[in-house]
Specification:
This protein is an alpha+beta fold. It has helices spanning 32-43, 173-182, 206-212, 219-222, 269-274, 350-382, 396-415; strands at residues 48-52, 61-67, 72-78, 84-88, 109-111, 114-116, 123-125, 130-132, 151-157, 160-164, 194-202, 242-246, 249-255, 302-309, 313-318, 322-332, 335-344.
Length: 416
């Protein structure tokens, strides 16, 4: 694991010689056959973040999560003993999807003491145990104690709920996260409970969108209008300040534009009025203690850390004491669902609330600009006009990500 800024005589990629510098094939983003391989090798074996403890605020609260790439729906529950558990969302009797509201394919949430199957009325407790079988005497010697819901491995780290649908995960969640990500465990995520969410269905492979957030080489050409009146220059140079790899996980850190210190003529009037923008509210809420695990490269004028937790979670931590989480859920070889959540320390005044809402609108605008390129990227890759594509030094995380995907697929299917 690297923990150094890039020295003048080297490049980031040279610090990880196993990645090489050759052009990279993106066949893994267009092949239906490869998608089927990675479903088995990755999404049925890796730890997947499905929510936060905030989603289960009280005993008896629950939510469902559709894991299309793993071929299942998950029911996540906070029991009366305060324990968080996960189950396959499937009735033990005839395999009906157990918990749903409007349609079986739609995710839902609520608060309950039991779950009743809509088909034949079997009921289950919050611990997954079967508590009622309709017309039980009609069956042939069944034992309700052996007819509970199918458990899914579930662990909580720093308030993030992870599941693993493998019969036997190869390692615990904390072992899987490794030292770089685990260093964030004491970061004050729990203080940031004011949430803004958005969701989009995209016509691109899940990796294509993740690639868009793995480098800042695209920022000046793509986000020109968002950089402010004085900085509108698509020829500008913007570089990540620190790149680091740890097992399958990655982080890129950037320096921050301290817009709260800029003269008004450098800013949009709305930024000045609301004291907020793409880096978040200017008036950062005070946080006691150290921001554990952040800025691993010791970047001066640090602005953002983008921790990318394999396979499909990104946590972006901002210097102004708030964070973003992104998740990318494959639904086919060229479609996926994108989820974004912005988390802030709760506002105490109307001005603070407006600053948070303006930051959420600005972040959404940035994301929409990124999304606007995805269809074109997917269509271009599917033309297979080129067998491979050159990557520069700032695209080291893209290179590492695709190598990691290939390694997981190769290892799993070689073992089989």
């Amino acid at each position: 694991m690297s923990s150094f800024p890039r020295p003048p005589e080297g490049t980031w990629t040279q610090h990880y010689p196993e990645l090489g510098t050759a052009p990279v094939s993106f066949e893994d983003s267009v092949s239906p056959q490869f998608y089927e391989l990675e479903r088995d090798a990755i999404f049925r074996r890796a730890w997947l973040n499905v929510g936060r403890v905030d989603d289960l605020a009280r005993k008896g609260s629950w939510f469902t999560k559709d894991l299309a790439a793993a071929g299942t729906s998950i029911l996540v529950v906070r029991g009366m003993d305060d324990e968080i558990r996960a189950f396959h969302n499937v009735c033990r009797h005839r395999g009906n999807r157990l918990v749903w509201t409007d349609t079986p394919a739609q995710e839902s949430c609520g608060v309950s003491r039991q779950f009743a199957c809509k088909y034949h009325g079997w009921r289950y407790g919050l611990d997954g145990g079967c508590v009622y079988v309709h017309q039980e005497n009609e069956f042939f010697g069944i034992d309700k104690d052996e007819l509970g819901l199918a458990s899914v491995h579930c662990e909580v780290w720093a308030g993030f709920i992870f599941v693993n649908v493998a019969e036997a995960p190869r390692e615990t969640l904390r072992e899987y996260l490794g030292p770089m990500v685990s260093a964030l465990e004491d970061y004050p995520f729990g203080l940031m409970t004011e949430r803004y969410s958005f969701r989009a269905e995209n016509a691109s492979n899940w990796k294509v969108f993740i690639d868009a957030f793995q480098e800042y080489y695209h920022v000046p050409p793509l986000h020109t209008e968002q950089l402010g009146p004085v900085h509108r220059n698509p020829e500008a140079v913007f570089e990540g300040a620190h790149y680091q790899l740890d097992g399958p996980h990655r982080v890129v850190s950037t320096s921050g534009a301290e817009k709260h210190r800029f003269p008004p003529e450098y800013l949009y009037p709305s930024e000045v009025l609301l004291r907020s923008g793409n880096m978040g509210p200017w008036d950062a809420p005070p946080i006691d203690g150290e921001l554990a695990g952040t800025n691993p490269g010791g970047v001066k004028r640090w602005g953002i850390d983008n921790f990318q937790i394999f396979p499909n979670l990104e946590i972006l931590i901002y210097e102004r004491n708030w964070y973003l989480s992104y998740r990318f859920w494959p639904t086919s070889h060229n479609t996926h669902v994108f989820e974004a959540d912005l988390w802030f320390v709760p506002a105490k005044t109307a001005r603070e609330r407006l600053a948070r809402e303006y930051a959420a609108v600005t972040v959404k605008e940035y994301a929409l600009q990124d999304v606007g390129t995805l269809d074109g990227t997917q269509l271009g890759l599917e033309s297979r006009a080129f067998a491979s594509h050159p990557l520069n030094d700032q695209e080291i995380l893209v290179r590492h990500f695709h190598k990691t995907v290939a390694d997981w697929v190769e290892e799993h299917h070689a073992a089989r």
